[in-house]
């Protein structure tokens, strides 16, 4: 036993000596040399090259004349920015100092650092790294005005709501409002369960306290908190859901968001993102909600006053919905295509788990409250189809600096796209197995809607 302990001790000490021989402590080769970059941060465009001045002082070789020493100035993340400048010891002044310009080439938006390393030709594995580093922020060179995306997306969404307003039934809407169990499930799912799921997912996937991971947590939190838009209502049409309940829940949640968003940001978002200046864009949110209600009202007025127009909409409701949805998704993705370069396994897990967990939790809650299969399906779709535009607006109001804003946009865009993809998969499965049928009177059926509309027009004096 004693021999075994002696053997292990000798090997452990030998390993320590080997490890020490391949990694020098700072100051062993040339004393406590210092680096000065002349600025706190370097900001440049992704296609731009800058030459910051770098100064190295206090270089005093410990062994020999220092002819074997050389410095390397490089970037840590060469995908974002690249620099590779080599300085031989012979270029240093007699007092052990050097100053010169170093070329830094921006490549892709994001963050990197410029560092200085000391190498020895006699011991290539001995590398000393300065504790001083220069943060680098690389910005996109082509930036589309964010107002273009916001306004055009809002216009497409309002056309979608105008389209859906023509198929609403006032009697069924009145029943939903008088017995608001369905909308209450939608409210609880959107403003209680989904934020809680996003908070837990964010903490599990991005546990670091770094600014980048905090921003990703905030983006996921806003994605879960934002009420679903017209895309969820369109999905309810295709899945034979209760369109009246879907639109009513969307409208109610959009109105309540004006109260719940500030409350959640005040209570929980500060734990996600360490910033006391998080803001809620009340103007944009309230304006969008008012426009939503107006478009739905106009659609209902068209149904009552212009029956020929509404018959056309009834017949082509699905194609029109698909075209508007594709335009909305295509515009947002097309203008923000660059975010997919930041796609990671954490983003994939978050974008898949959030809508799946939201769907299952909402469906279970609906069944526990004795909702019909159609209503349970509708509310689950309403919760799981994630909004793409509102989280972007909320993040923009959070005053995230570039390129941090560009780095976190991948979360709401990927989450929304994958939630739509999951609905498409559900629709295909239901169609393949013959399950995509109208299950009760509240289920959407455009043929029955056309027949009811023609009968109403025929009976009109």
TrEMBL record:
It is found in: Membrane. One of its GO terms (molecular function) is symporter activity. The gene is Dwil\GK25246. It comes from the Eukaryota. This is P3 protein. PANTHER family: P3 PROTEIN-RELATED (PTHR10361:SF28), SODIUM-BILE ACID COTRANSPORTER (PTHR10361). One of its GO terms (cellular component) is membrane. Pfam families: SBF. Gene3D superfamilies: 1.20.1530.20.
């Amino acid at each position: 036993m004693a021999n075994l302990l002696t053997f292990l001790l000798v090997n452990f000490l030998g390993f320590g000596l080997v490890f020490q021989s391949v990694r020098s402590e700072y100051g062993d080769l040339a004393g406590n040399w210092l680096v000065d970059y002349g600025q706190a941060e370097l900001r440049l465009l992704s296609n731009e090259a800058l030459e910051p001045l770098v100064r190295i002082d206090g270089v005093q070789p410990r062994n020999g004349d220092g002819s074997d020493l050389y410095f390397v100035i490089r970037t840590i993340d060469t995908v974002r920015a690249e620099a590779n400048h080599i300085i031989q010891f012979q270029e240093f002044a007699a007092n052990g100092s050097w100053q010169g310009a170093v070329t830094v080439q921006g490549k892709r938006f994001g963050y990197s650092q410029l560092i200085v390393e000391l190498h020895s030709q006699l011991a290539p594995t001995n590398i000393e790294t300065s504790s001083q580093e220069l943060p680098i922020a690389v910005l996109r060179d082509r930036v589309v005005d964010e107002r273009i995306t916001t306004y055009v997306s809002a216009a497409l969404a309002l056309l979608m709501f105008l389209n859906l307003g023509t198929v609403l039934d006032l009697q069924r809407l009145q029943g939903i409002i008088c017995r608001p169990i369905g909308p209450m499930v939608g409210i609880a799912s959107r403003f209680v369960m989904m934020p809680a799921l996003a908070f837990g997912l964010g903490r599990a996937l991005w546990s670091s306290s770094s600014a980048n991971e905090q921003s990703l947590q905030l983006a996921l939190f806003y994605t879960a908190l934002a009420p679903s838009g017209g895309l969820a209502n369109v999905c309810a049409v295709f899945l034979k859901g209760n369109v009246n309940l879907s639109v009513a829940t969307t409208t109610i949640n959009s109105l309540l968001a004006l109260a719940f968003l500030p409350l959640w940001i005040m209570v929980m978002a500060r734990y996600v993102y360490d910033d006391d200046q998080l803001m809620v864009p009340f103007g944009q949110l309230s304006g969008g909600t008012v426009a939503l209600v107006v478009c739905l009202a106009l659609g209902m007025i068209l149904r009552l006053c212009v029956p020929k127009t509404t018959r056309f909409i009834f017949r082509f409701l699905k194609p029109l919905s698909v075209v508007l949805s594709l335009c909305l998704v295509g515009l947002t993705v097309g203008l923000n295509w660059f975010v997919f370069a930041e796609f990671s396994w954490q983003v994939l897990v978050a974008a898949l788990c959030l809508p799946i967990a939201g769907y299952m939790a909402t469906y279970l809650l609906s069944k526990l409250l004795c909702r019909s299969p159609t209503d349970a399906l509708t509310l689950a779709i309403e919760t799981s189809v994630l909004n793409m535009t509102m989280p972007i607006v909320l993040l923009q109001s959070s005053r995230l600096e570039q390129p941090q804003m560009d780095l976190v946009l991948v979360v709401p865009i990927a989450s929304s796209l994958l939630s739509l993809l999951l609905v498409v998969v559900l629709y295909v499965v239901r169609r393949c197995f013959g399950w995509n049928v109208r299950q009760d009177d509240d289920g959407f059926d455009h043929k029955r809607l056309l027949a009811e509309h023609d009968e109403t027009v025929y009976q009109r004096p």
